[in-house]
Design brief:
alpha+beta; 21% strand; disordered N terminus
Length: 374
């Protein structure tokens, strides 16, 4: 068991990896006086789920299948996007569609022709794409105008946003991405389960080949500080490298590596190999999870200055969301640490359940099938 865990840990620490991709689309709008144009990249896998592109059901979406549904794709997407210039509705039409590759697969590209009654001073964007199908979906907006580049994250938590053109509010951008970082942690089930796997033993001590309740809060608290610090430092490194474009690797393998990290962290609770050094596990696998956090930003195509601002804001949000989970879980775990409920139901059964769920994720991501709804 120990040899297996060590081998797998080493494998996934050095594995080629990139991103655990949520459902994203990429919307770019350029405003130049009366001339407004745009581009909208939407994942084919998401469109297939929404309107069915795979006509023969063989799991492979061909160019012919996409081309035959261009009108349906445009109608579906444009019904879920609207623009207003100074309160007046703008018309939005799609040009001839193309196909482009992003880090997580093929996307249809809709060139947008936008006509507004006048050159806008304020542009309001309403976005509800896939809102009824996927509450985690996000539209990443890049708005170019005379005031420079603006970014925003559109989705269920902020389906409508207004932008004063000629005005660049960096604090607003920072807060948008900080909020997205918090949300990404709270709806990123694999990241949450990995963190919980590391936190479950925090209120216990491995002694005489078994887990025993910790006597004081100080030791568990210091252990959690080491784990959270190691995880933070590690994912900040790879988040920065991936977001700034220094590393770009296939998403499928990182999604698999993230799932495997959850399995190993949970199994380590049952047969500790790294007890006393769990911060090392957090650091090593934090490098992989950092690529996953970066996936929401890497394909947006922002100027370097705006990208750096988004990177910092998103990272701050991730840490805020992570610390909120720790602040809720640790006091509860310490208070219940002496009970059979905690040791057998929460700790033992919880670790087994986490390992089982992550094992299913691993199979899904390696072999491309879908079992779990999350």
């Amino acid at each position: 068991m120990k040899a297996l865990l060590l081998a797998l840990l080493g494998l996934f620490c050095i594995a080629s990896a990139e991103a655990h991709k949520p459902s994203d689309s990429y919307l770019s709008i350029t405003v130049d006086g009366n001339r407004i144009s745009g581009r909208w990249d939407i994942a084919l896998r998401d469109l297939d789920h929404a309107i069915g592109l795979d006509a023969n059901g063989n799991g492979d979406i061909t160019w012919g299948e996409v081309r035959s549904r261009h009108a349906d794709i445009a109608a579906y997407a444009l019904a879920r996007l609207s623009l207003q210039a100074d309160g007046a509705a703008c018309s939005v039409a799609a040009g001839e569609q193309l196909i482009d590759d992003h880090t997580d697969g093929a996307y249809t590209v809709l060139p947008l022709r936008i006509a507004c009654p006048q050159a806008p001073k304020q542009l309001r964007v309403s976005y509800t794409l896939f809102a009824d199908l996927d509450p985690q979906h996000r539209g990443l907006l890049n708005l170019q105008s005379a005031g420079g580049s603006r970014t925003a994250v559109l989705g269920p938590q902020a389906p409508q946003q207004a932008f004063v053109l000629g005005e660049s509010r960096r604090l607003s951008q920072f807060l948008d991405y900080a909020r997205e970082g918090v949300w990404h942690i709270w709806v990123g089930y694999d990241h949450i389960l990995f963190l919980l796997s590391l936190l479950l033993p925090a209120a216990l001590v491995w002694r005489n080949r078994r887990w025993e309740p910790a006597q004081q809060l100080r030791a568990p608290l210091l252990d959690v500080v080491r784990i959270v610090t190691a995880f933070t430092v590690a994912h900040s490194i790879t988040l920065s490298l991936a977001t700034l474009g220094f590393v770009s690797l296939p998403s499928r393998w990182v999604e698999s590596a993230i799932a495997a990290s959850v399995v190993l962290a949970a199994l380590n609770n049952l047969r500790p190999v790294f007890e006393g050094r769990r911060w090392m596990v957090a650091f090593c696998f934090g490098l992989i999870h950092g690529f996953g956090f970066a996936s929401v930003l890497t394909d947006l195509g922002l100027p370097r200055g705006a990208l750096a601002l988004a990177l910092v804001g998103f990272n701050v949000g991730v840490e805020t969301g992570q610390l909120a989970i720790v602040a809720v879980f640790l006091p509860l775990a310490f208070g219940l640490r002496r009970t059979r409920f905690y040791r057998w139901v929460v700790f033992t059964f919880g670790s087994l359940l986490i390992a089982a769920i992550a094992a299913v994720w691993l199979g899904e991501r390696l072999f491309g099938y879908k079992v779990l709804p999350f």
